[in-house]
Design a protein that fits this description.
alpha/beta; 176 residues; globular; two-stranded antiparallel ribbon; 10 strands
């Protein structure tokens, strides 16, 4: 887990040079969540949010990662947290992917301008034209409390997310 003075760490223990650090205000954004419905990060103010940037729909590692999150979604919700997946794929691709995999959380299209939100969070991989495999846990006040950047071919699992959620202060009335 990172603290407010450290950048998000990568899986090999080295710091990501650009990922937003814990303690940073999470930049707000609005992206398409379905074909006709935009979703803004600010809609979730007051509750924790997990941003899961991933390289591409339909890739084996991304599929495994998001399927795991779909399975542990009740654990995230136990912390009143909401999960949002983000990649540079378009809304039509997300729609087909989410339906095929039965995902119960939104996939947002960081499509045009390509990777704009990933760039804002410091996790755009310009060489590949995709986002990094990056995770951010944002508290109810909109502050990044934990971040992690994994190699593209490695499923980062859910343990770090759950540990970060456990470390968040309990809001009045939450986790009952």
């Amino acid at each position: 887990m990172t603290n407010a003075n450290q950048p998000a760490s990568s899986a090999n223990g080295t710091a990501s040079t650009t990922a937003l650090a814990a303690g940073t205000a999470a930049p707000d954004f609005t992206l398409n969540s379905t074909l006709d419905k935009p979703l803004a990060l600010s809609e979730y103010r007051g509750r924790p949010v997990i941003l899961a940037f991933y390289p591409a729909d339909w890739s084996p590692t991304c599929g495994d990662q998001l399927a795991l999150y779909n399975e542990v979604l009740p654990e995230f919700q136990r912390h009143d947290a909401r999960l949002i997946g983000i990649s540079v794929d378009g809304k039509w691709c997300h729609k087909a992917y989410a339906e095929a995999r039965n995902f119960r959380f939104p996939l947002l299209a960081d499509f045009e301008p390509k990777g704009e939100i990933a760039r804002t969070y410091g996790v755009y991989h310009a060489k590949n034209g995709t986002s990094e495999r990056a995770l951010f846990v944002i508290d109810g006040d909109g502050v990044i409390r934990w971040g992690y950047v994994a190699p593209a071919g490695v499923n980062p699992g859910a343990d770090g997310i759950l540990t970060a959620l456990e470390a968040l202060p309990v809001a009045a009335g939450a986790r009952s």
